[in-house]
């Protein structure tokens, strides 16, 4: 996160660290992406976060990834489901969404607490210009390795036609994407934040309106972050998880 600050612990309880290691190895897991808890056994992340021949785990309720914190929960990923039409192009990533099914017992995986809660799925569009929150452990303006501590920043939802102007992203955006940020630059998501939430508040509940997906570098003028438009994929999410209206917020 560029231009970020440490959030109050527990204010983003759906934020997940997605971690990988080579399959069946004993090396320790390393943070690769963000993710979003949407149900006890389901995490939403970016499609480009799924790597073949890797074991995956998620850490919930964490602030500092370098410390073993009392409220964190570490869960194994049993299955990663990437969108069937995921495609990586030199200029954009399409259908950049995946689901992680967590390992649990009797349909229970994450335990709800002050620091671990699910986010709602969006049920419709939000207005251009609305202020939402991005968060993650990714690259910052001061560290190309990312941040051990979770960071958050406020960004604005940017009109799709505006973001499709030639001096911004031109004609590469589709309905599965949305832009958010500050056209002046400086405040943005970056590498390592991918898959994490663009969280927007509506009726005092938080929804995962976007997932960090791509952009032309980070924090640059006229190059806002591009996010997977989760509202476009709610039917896909429900078809894979068979979750109904989740309790959230
Ligand atoms: C990346 O490389 C990446 N500024 C993620 C987000 C953004 C740019 C790049 C948005 O994963």
Automatic annotation (TrEMBL):
Compartment annotation: Secreted, Extracellular space
Protein name: trypsin
Organism: Neogobius melanostomus (round goby)
Positions of the Peptidase S1 domain: 1-242
Entry superkingdom: Eukaryota
């Amino acid at each position: 996160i560029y231009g970020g600050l440490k959030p109050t612990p527990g204010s983003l309880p759906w934020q997940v660290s997605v971690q990988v290691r080579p399959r069946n190895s004993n090396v320790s897991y390393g943070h690769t992406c963000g993710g979003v808890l949407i149900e006890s056994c389901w995490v939403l992340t970016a499609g480009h976060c799924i790597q073949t021949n890797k074991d995956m785990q998620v850490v919930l309720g964490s602030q500092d990834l370098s410390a073993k914190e009392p409220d964190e929960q570490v869960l194994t990923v049993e299955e990663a489901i990437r969108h069937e039409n995921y495609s990586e192009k030199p200029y954009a990533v399409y259908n950049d969404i995946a689901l992680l099914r967590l390992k649990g017992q009797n349909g229970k995986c994450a335990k709800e607490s002050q620091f671990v809660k699910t986010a709602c799925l969006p049920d419709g569009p939000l207005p251009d210009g609305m202020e939402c929150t991005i968060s993650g452990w990714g690259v910052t303006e001061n560290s190309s390795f990312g941040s051990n501590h979770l960071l958050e920043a406020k960004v604005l939802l940017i009109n799709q036609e505006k973001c499709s102007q030639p001096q911004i992203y031109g004609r590469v955006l589709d309905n599965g994407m949305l832009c958010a940020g500050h056209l002046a630059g400086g405040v943005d998501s970056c590498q390592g934040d991918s898959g994490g939430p663009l969280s927007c508040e509506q009726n005092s509940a938080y929804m995962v309106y976007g997932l960090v997906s791509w952009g032309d570098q980070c924090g640059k003028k006229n190059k806002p972050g591009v996010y997977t438009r989760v509202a476009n994929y709610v039917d896909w999410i429900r078809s894979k998880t068979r979750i109904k209206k989740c309790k959230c917020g």
